[in-house]
Structures are given as structure tokens and as C-alpha cells.
Amino acid sequence: MTTGAAGPGRGVEVRLDDLQRRYGNATALAGLTLTLAPGELVALLGPSGCGKTTALRLLAGLEEPDSGRVVVDGVDVTNVPANRRDIGMVFQAYSLFPHMSAMRNVEFGMQLHDVGPAERRKRAGDMLELVGLSAHAHKYAHQMSGGQQQRVALARALAIEPKVLLLDEPLSALDAKVRSRLRDEIRRVQLEVGTTTLFVTHDQEEALAIADRVGVMNAGRLEQLGPPTTIYSRPATPFVAEFVGLTNRLAGVVKDGEVDVRGARLPLVKPDTPNGPAIALVRPEAVSLVVDGDMVPGPLIGTVIATAFLGATSRITVDMGDGTVLAQMPTSEAGALSAGTRVRLALRKDPVLIARDESKPTEA
Which of 187, 164, 183 lies closest to 172 in space, CA to CA? Predict the structure, then answer.
């Protein structure tokens, strides 16, 4: 795990202990337990209604749990008001004061924390420099782009030197190019100041790109928590496999710790999976396509029906007669696979996860 060097008052441990929250008959959190190490950035990822924003709001003190505890730096803050929790927040909406310059917006939060004028100005200047906006210190919100406004909001949250930083889908209102650039900027700043950070998003690319660990949530529960590479390559549940990245659902038969898929035998993530019919969850990059003279019809022979250009890679859709399969290949190789080309599938022997139910998980 990569973490930043913690500064004064930063890099504290955060614990969410068995948090439960209901709204009427709906369960938003069903016993969430999560620990953030000092200086760590954890991303909570999941579909709308999975409980990730509720977890953030409970940590912020904007809501109270029905049961469970919130512990920050060893202190139980479950019943402490939001304005006394020493937590900085950045929301999807920039929420800048339109009548204040960028500098004054950053200073505002420090006024509420009784920071003197001289120290406010110095700290605000330092924070704007940290986010690369020193030249825009005297601009108003309407004079800045969305990405610049969100960086001011980040500077404002960090200026109070919070123990914990909360980011609630801060990039979703921005266009793709700005979102990618600002995502990397947020990570750079977070590593530099070393503040323990909880990042909530429904965008898997954001979560996988910047987090030390990713927690995938579904229906108020944490399905899996781990480093991004583990979440993607070793999903713990079918829901995680299908929510994070694209996944082929291929019919097969489990036998003796392997699954037979169209005549190809693949190892299992869970070798003790019971024998019998199953659905193998196979990533597109584990599927390669071969074109040669031997195209006798068989279970691994199909026809290319579409190719999606993704830059360095391309995604090819293959009609297998009884369904379609996605393969992801270097664009340099995919160029020869035009629609109508007969191909043979080759499945890389990566361990795969098994789903017994053919229906996809429902999104909470």
C-alpha cells in the first residue's frame, strides 16, 4: 500500500465499526465494518443505492447510525456533531461562494476554525499553490472552469488541516478529459499532504486508478475490500466480477477443481467449487482470437460481428451461434479482424470465478 507522509494532525486511523442504517423498510447499511490506515486513500465503489454515500455521511456526522460506531484517531465520534469532527469534504457540486474570489473561498473555512487573518492568507496561498491555482487566486467562480472550481473546493477542504478528507463523487460533473486529469491531481495532492481519505464513486476507473484499496459495495454490504489489482483480477464474488470491468458469462461444467468451457479446461478461483453446470466469468482480455486455415465448425469457432476501437486496444464481439463473446486485443492485431471473419477462440488459463445463477446480480 502506498501512502503519503503524514503532516501535523493528519494521517490518522479511521474505523467504521458495524454501522447499520435504515430508512423506513430500506436497509442502506447492513453492518459495515471498515478500517482506513493512517494516510490511506480508500475508494468505496458501487451502484446507486448500495450504501457508499450513506457510509460517507455517517463518517462526516451528517447522519447518525442506527447502531455501530465511528472512531477517528482512537476517539469515538459517533455522537460528535459534524462541525466538531475535524473533517474536510469535497462534493460533486463545487459549492463555491460566487461573491468571493478563489482565495477568499479557501480562507472561509479557516475563519470558522478561528484561524487568524495572517495565517489564513498564508495557508490559503499555500493550498492554491498545491493545487496549481496560484495564478487564479483573485478570480471568481464564473471566471474559472469546472475543473478549476473543483480544485478550489479541494484546497478549501484541505486548508483547515482536517484529520480526514471525504470526497463524494467530486468528478462526476466534469467532462472525461478534465475528470482524468483532476483525478490524478487529487491523488498527487492527497499523497503530498498525507490525509486519510475516503473517496466515494460509482466510476470503477476512478476507483481503480487512485485508491490504495477499493471497497466494492452492494445492497448495504461490503462485498470485497482490497488493492485495485486484486479487486479486478481476483474478484471475490460474481457481483464484484461483473461490476468491476467487463466479463463474459460462458456456460461450462465444473469438475474436480476446474471448469470445462467449450472444451477448454480453466482453473477456478475457488477450487473447492462443487461439481456441476455453472457459468464461468471470463475477462475479455483472457480471450484471444486466431485466424488460420482450420475453421471446421466447433465449440470454439465463431464469426466477428463488430470491433470497437479503444485506442491501443480494441474490443471484438464474436458471434458463437449460441451467444456472443467479447475479446480484447491490441489494436495492431485487431485490425485484420473485420466483420464476417471466422475466428477460433483461445481462452487464457486464468483462474475464473463461477456463478451458479444465470441471471446477473441486480443493482441495489
Answer: 183
Whether pTM exceeds 0.85: no
Query: How many other C-beta atoms lie within 10 A of the C-beta of residue 332?
Result: 10
* CA–CA gap between residue 113 and residue 350 (Å, rounded): 54
What span, in angstroms and rounded, lies between the C-alpha atoms of 25 and 319? 44
Q: Is 202 within 8 Å of 169 (Cβ atoms)?
A: yes
Reading the chain (364 residues) residue by residue, the pLDDT tens digits are 343 333 444 689 999 999 999 999 999 999 999 999 999 999 999 998 899 999 999 999 999 999 999 999 999 999 999 988 989 988 888 788 999 999 999 998 788 777 888 888 998 999 899 888 999 999 999 999 988 998 899 999 888 889 999 999 888 877 777 888 888 888 988 998 899 999 999 889 899 999 999 999 999 999 999 999 999 988 999 999 989 988 999 999 999 889 999 999 999 988 999 999 999 999 999 999 988 767 777 788 999 999 999 889 999 999 998 899 999 999 998 888 889 999 999 999 999 999 875 444 333 3
Contact 320, 211 (CB under 8 A): no
User: Do residues 80 and 55 touch, judged by C-beta distance below 8 A?
Assistant: no
Greatest Cα pair distance, the chain, in angstroms, is 80
Q: Residues near 74 by Cβ (< 8 Å), separated by ≥ 6? A: 13
In three-state form (DSSP H/G/I as H, E/B as E, the rest C), the secondary structure along 122-158 is: HHHHHHHHHCCCHHHCCCEHHHCCHHHHHHHHHHHHH
